[in-house]
Amino acid sequence: MIRIRTLLVFGLLTFCAAIATAAEAAPPVSGEVRVNGQPLALTHAYLLHAPDAFEEKQINAVVLLTPEPLDAAALRAADSLRAVFDLAPRRVVIEFAGTTSDGSLAICHPAFPEGFCYRTTSGEYSREEAAGGHLAGSVQTFTGEEETVFDKYLVFYDLRFDAAPARDLTRRR
Questions:
Q1: What is the Rg, in whole angstroms, of the alpha carbon atoms belonging to the chain?
Q2: In Å, what is the CA distance from 54 to each residue of 28, 58, 161, 168?
Q3: Which terminus of the chain, N or C, has fewer Cβ atoms within 10 Å?
């Protein structure tokens, strides 16, 4: 009887551990972003809070998606949203106005001229507060297809994210 209980408890613990490991293994970013057919593989998601560009008293949720992890010490030392962005020249930024799902998107991709980021409010945005202070959501093109911008770039984005809280910033610049 004790042996059966031990096996049941062990089996239950193993099952729970497997579920927890699978949940932890879920990537924080999925989907894709492409410019002129060139993908930008995004693997890390950071949730920042910063003042709105026009209404400083309004604090916006800013999701930073990057292909590589940010240096933790540099992230802690960054004194503004701009300084955080400087840590990731290749990035996607999704900014939500206040607590709404109204968003804007910036794509900083190697296919664009150095230092240029394509910015738009076009697309379908969603957001949801998640456990542990995370912000989960998605952004995608309206058409679900590549869109021509500036008459020379084919841009596509269809991203889902689960961004962990990273920094609350008091300044944009």
A1: 19
A2: 29, 9, 26, 18
A3: N
Q: Is the pLDDT of residue 24 over 60?
A: no
SS3 of residue 96 by DSSP: strand
Exposed e or buried b per residue across 53-80, where buried means at least 16 C-beta atoms within 10 angstroms of its C-beta = eeeeeebbbbbbbbeeebeeeebeebee
**Per-residue model confidence as pLDDT tens digits over 140-169:** 998 889 999 999 999 999 999 999 999 999
Instruction: For tokens 């400087």, name the residue.
Output: 86
Q: pTM surpassing 0.85?
A: no
Report which of 156, 68, 143 is spatially closest to residue 111, judged by C-alpha positions.
156
